[in-house]
Design a protein that fits this description.
Blueprint lengths: L19 E3 H4 L4 H13 L2 E5 L6 H18 L3 H4 L11 E3 L14 E7 H5 L6 H5 L1 H25 L21 E7 L11 E4 L5 E5 L5 E7 L5 E6 L6 E6 L1 H6 L9 E3 L7 E8 L6 E3 L5 E3 H13 L7 H4 L11 E4 L2 E4 L6
Parallel strand pairs: 1-2
Antiparallel strand pairs: 2-10, 3-4, 4-5, 5-12, 6-11, 7-10, 7-12, 8-9, 8-11, 13-14, 15-16
Helix pairs in contact: 3-7
Bound molecules: 2-oxoglutaric acid and fe (ii) ion.
GO molecular function, one term: metal ion binding
Keywords: Iron, Metal-binding, Oxidoreductase
Protein name: Fe2OG dioxygenase domain-containing protein
């Protein structure tokens, strides 16, 4: 029992000020959009990707269909869902509520079904509703993969990484990877404190696309005049936009020139919450310098992070949880019985 939670419902303030990048324009390396993209990934690690162009319409339609199919599946009994427990470094299959630490000292309040990019392309180990609506699910996943790969290519270009050092080389489409779509469901605020939210973390792959029409996501935002103070800010859901965040592998592969953004999800007071994410991750055999500067295989990094996500809150290694980015231990983020407070911090 993690303690009884009370207090007023959140007002979703402050709202994070994030850049918007227009996908159809960044495709053509429009200088203004490239500026907006490069600034966002080097200051906050989060931005909106505007997908309201004619070409992206089909993708958003598929998203709607897949979301609605998955909403129904989440209402199935737990023993039906548990038949498909996660495999392949947790990149494919079902994770039940409570298998990771939550936001308030207890366990988490979300469940997820992931479809690995390789698995869906190979039609391997899919749950019946995904099989039934295979066209929509597989097309949506290819569309997410396309969008995130194009962003990666433009980021690689924006960072001046030419042929030899291009980020495309570590993200080959013909190599196995842990890229996956995740369909997430959050239960409403559990006032007993037992199962609450999605603990703060950085994502362990390269880039993440988040689709959700609901509030709940928060980013640890660089506030203050020079961005030296960090505070939790809400990420407003916007129609026809994906929310994109930078993840650990991109941070490490670029020599720490971009920010792997710390974020978390708080449950809604009285409503279920649904979101869909795409995790673009590098080829499984990619090597990178880790938090200590030692060369490591990306799979070792995933294993360390996954073990930390699942550990009880009080035994978690917080520096791993948030990407190993914080040399000063917990980096000025202090956990309290009621949740997590962010203290002033000067180092990053
Ligand atoms: O549900 C969301 O809005 C974000 C989920 C997330 O951060 C994750 O799955 O890594
Ligand atoms: Fe995340």
């Amino acid at each position: 029992m993690a303690g009884v939670l009370s207090g007023p419902a959140p007002a979703f303030k402050p709202v994070a000020k994030l850049n918007t990048v227009v996908f159809s324009k960044v495709l053509d390396r429009d200088p203004e959009q490239m500026d907006s993209l490069m600034t966002a990934i080097q200051t906050v690690g989060f931005f909106y990707l505007d997908l309201s162009d004619k070409y992206s319409e089909g993708m958003l339609k598929n998203l709607e269909q897949c979301s609605s199919v998955m909403k129904d599946w989440f209402s199935e009994p737990i023993d039906v869902k548990s038949e498909y427990k996660t495999v392949s470094m947790a990149s494919h299959g079902y994770k039940p509520i409570g298998s990771q630490a939550g936001t308030h000292g207890g366990r988490d309040g979300w469940e997820v079904l992931k479809t690995g990019t390789l698995e869906i392309a190979s039609r391997w180990g899919l749950i019946p509703p995904v099989e039934k609506h295979y066209e929509a699910f597989s097309t949506f996943q290819r569309q997410c993969d396309y969008v995130s790969r194009m962003l990666l290519d433009r980021i690689s270009h924006g960072l001046g990484l030419g042929a030899e050092s291009s980020l495309n080389r570590t993200h080959r489409g013909d190599c196995p990877s842990k890229s996956a779509v995740a369909y997430l469901h959050y239960i409403p605020m559990d006032h007993s404190g037992e199962n609450v939210g999605h603990n703060m973390h950085t994502d362990y792959g390269t880039l993440t696309l988040v689709f959700t029409p609901q509030w709940g996501l928060q980013v640890l935002y660089p506030a203050g005049p020079r961005g030296e103070d960090r505070e939790w800010q809400w990420v407003e859901p916007r129609p026809n936009c994906a929310i994109v965040n930078v993840a650990d592998v991109l941070y490490f592969l670029t020599g720490r020139r971009v920010i792997s953004a710390v974020h978390r999800v708080l449950p809604l007071p009285d409503k279920d919450r649904y979101s869909v994410t795409y995790f673009l991750r590098p080829s499984d055999d990619t090597l990178m310098p880790d938090a200590e500067g030692n060369t490591t295989n990306v799979m070792e990094w995933y294993t360390k992070k996954n073990n930390n996500y699942e550990a009880p809150a009080h035994t978690q290694d917080k520096s791993f949880l948030i990407g190993g980015l914080y040399k000063d231990g917990f980096g000025g983020i202090e956990e309290t019985a009621a949740g997590i407070n962010v203290m002033n911090r000067t180092k990053r």
